[in-house]
Amino acid sequence: MQTRITHLFNIQYPIIQAGMIWCSGWRLAAAVTNAGGLGMIGAGSMYPEVLREHIQKCKAAVGGKPFAVNVPLLYPDIVDIMEIIVQEGVPIVFTSAGSPKTWTAQLKRHNIMVVHVVSSVKFAIKCQEAGVDAVVAEGFEAGGHNGREETTTLCLIPMVRDAITIPLIAAGGIANGRAMMATMALGADGVQVGSRFAASLESSAHDNFKTSIVNAQEGDTLLTMKQLTPVRLIKNKFFDQVQEAELRGASREELALLLGRARAKKGMFEGDLDEGELEIGQVAAQITDVKPAAEILKDMWEEFVATQKQIASWIMDQGR
Q: How many domains does the chain have?
């Protein structure tokens, strides 16, 4: 199947692995790319030279196939990060958490494709005006840092599709072929998948965190810290501390102090399920196992094709 996304990135399947902090190292990125999708290294949890090492190892592992790097634009070492990306010849960059105008033109001057992540129609339009090659529209269901608008994927994708002409990637709540089929029927050219790949063998997340994803049930995640920086978390002791602080009207400064600098690392990378920040999407309730990334991608694609055939059969039955 060819879509504008498979053509743009020169990949076999329109499935992109999200750049998740503490989960998306070179092993996961390479596994997804080698399976026919687009793998992505998450720079948000890496010092510049660590990122360089991951890029070099990923390049060696994929043998010329495309991969991407996700860069939160609020990253303190952003200049060094972008310099390394250019030096290492990264073909595709996904930017987030900032204005697409800041780096898009400079990256494109080095023949690097740029995709920006948004959670609203307004910012999707700004991305197109800034000259990005594609947009990721991420719904409220997604894990990690999220949009304040709380627009769900089902509502967001068709609105963004009607507002822009460049390729559109759907994200948020997509962990299987049925969800992929639904978002593409709404106008997406491909999908970005985070939570499902966080629970893969190649994910750099701690095994404790992977187990917490598999054990998560409906309602076990909630968007919190809306006053500071909205983030969807699995409920745990740290989550309860945040909730208590917000309910009594804690200031942004107090919330920032409570969050600290290493909560996400403590939870997702070091496996502290009590005191750590456990970022994952609502779709965790559908994830029941940890398996290789290539198998995840294969399962998604096969279910997508089966769903497509089922819908075609319904249409044919209606025409009889």
A: 2
- State residue 106's pLDDT score: 95
Residues whose CB is less than 8 angstroms from the CB of residue 91 and which lie 6 or more positions away in sequence, other chains included: 66, 67, 68, 112, 113
Same domain (yes/no): 84, 145: yes
Quick one: 236 and 270 in the same domain?
Answer: yes
Q: Among residues 228, 226, 224, which one has the least CA distance to residue 256?
A: 228
Residue type, 268: M
Instruction: Tokens for 265, please give them.
Output: 């690392």
Phi, psi torsion values for 296, nearest 5 degrees: -60, -50
Residue 266: count of CB within 10 angstroms of its CB: 21
**Are 263 and 182 in the same domain?**
no
- CB distance 103 to 114 below 8 Å: yes
Residue keyed to tokens 């879509």 = 3
In 36-167, DSSP assigns E strands to: 39-42, 67-72, 92-96, 113-118, 134-138, 144-145
Round to whole Å and give the CA distance between 294 and 33. 9
Instruction: Give dist(CA 162, CA 59) in Å, integer.
Output: 36
CB 193 within 8 A of CB 293: no
CA distance 37 to 35: 6
Instruction: For residues 152 and 269, state if they share a domain.
Output: no
Q: Reduce the DSSP state of residue 134 to 3 states and report it.
A: strand
Q: Are 257 and 227 in contact (CB under 8 A)?
A: no
Bridge partners, residue 254, by sequence: none
Low-confidence ranges of the chain (pLDDT < 70): 261, 319-320
Q: How big is the chain, counted in residues?
A: 320
What is the pLDDT, as a whole number, of residue 319? 67
Residue ending a domain, among 155, 180, 204, is 204
Print the domain residue range for 226.
211-283
Residues near 45 by beta carbon (within 8 Å), at least 6 away in sequence: 21, 22, 264, 265, 269
| Residues 223, 247 share a domain | yes
Q: Per the structure block, which two tokens stand in for 146?
A: 């999220």
d(CA 152, CA 227): 19
